[in-house]
Automatic annotation (TrEMBL):
Organism: Plectus sambesii
Gene3D superfamilies from the UniProt entry: 1.20.1050.10
Superkingdom of this protein's organism: Eukaryota
UniProt cross-references to PANTHER family, sorted A to Z: CHLORIDE INTRACELLULAR CHANNEL CLIC (PTHR43920:SF5), CHLORIDE INTRACELLULAR CHANNEL, ISOFORM A (PTHR43920)
Membrane-spanning residues: none
GO molecular function, one term: chloride channel activity
GO CC terms in record: apical plasma membrane; cytoplasm
Protein name: Chloride intracellular channel
C-alpha cells in the first residue's frame, strides 16, 4: 500500500507542481494514505499486545529483518518525497524502529537516506532539483523526541 500511496501522491504533486498537504489530498489518494496509516497502527497494536522487543519474541527473526527496513523506507521516502511522517502516537512502532536503529546488523546494512530517496525517485521516474548522489550521505537512526 505504501508504494501505491507514493505513486498516487507523487503523480498528484507533479500535476500541481508542488507538494500537497495530507489534508488537501483528493479522496482516492487520501484513501490510500489512510490504508498506510491503518496498517502502521495495526503493527503498533500488535507490538503493544506482544510486549516483546521484536515481532515474535525477544530475539530477531526473519520477519523483523523484512519489516524493519520497510518501516525505515516508509519513514525516509515518505518524509523526503511526500511530507509524510509516521504518526508519532504509534509509540510501540517507534520503539520497534529504535530497536532496529540500535541493532548493529541493521546499522551496517542500512543504505543512506539519499540512496533510499533516489531509489523511489527512480521507481517513480520522479526527479526534483536536488541531486542526492552529490550530497554527503546521511543515515537517520533516531526517533522523534516527542515519541
Amino acid at each position: 500500500n505504501f508504494k501505491l500511496f507514493v505513486r498516487a501522491k507523487a503523480e498528484h504533486d507533479k500535476e500541481k507542481a508542488q507538494s500537497t498537504s495530507m489534508d488537501d489530498l483528493p479522496a482516492q489518494i487520501k484513501s490510500t494514505y489512510n490504508k498506510v496509516v491503518e496498517q502502521l497502527a495495526t503493527i503498533d497494536q500488535l507490538l503493544s499486545q506482544r510486549g516483546t522487543r521484536y515481532l515474535l519474541g525477544n530475539a530477531m527473526t526473519e520477519y523483523d529483518c523484512e519489516l524493519m527496513p520497510r518501516l525505515h523506507h516508509i519513514r525516509i521516502a515518505g518524509h523526503g518525497l511526500l511530507g509524510f511522517d509516521i504518526p508519532h502516537n504509534l509509540t510501540y512502532l517507534w520503539n520497534y524502529m529504535l530497536t532496529a536503529y540500535r541493532t548493529a546488523a541493521f546499522i551496517e546494512s542500512c543504505p543512506a537516506d539519499q540512496d533510499i530517496i533516489h531509489h523511489y525517485k527512480e521507481q517513480l521516474n520522479l526527479f526534483k532539483h536536488q541531486r542526492e548522489s552529490l550530497q554527503t550521505p546521511t543515515k537517520t537512526h533516531t526517533i522523534p523526541e516527542d515519541v
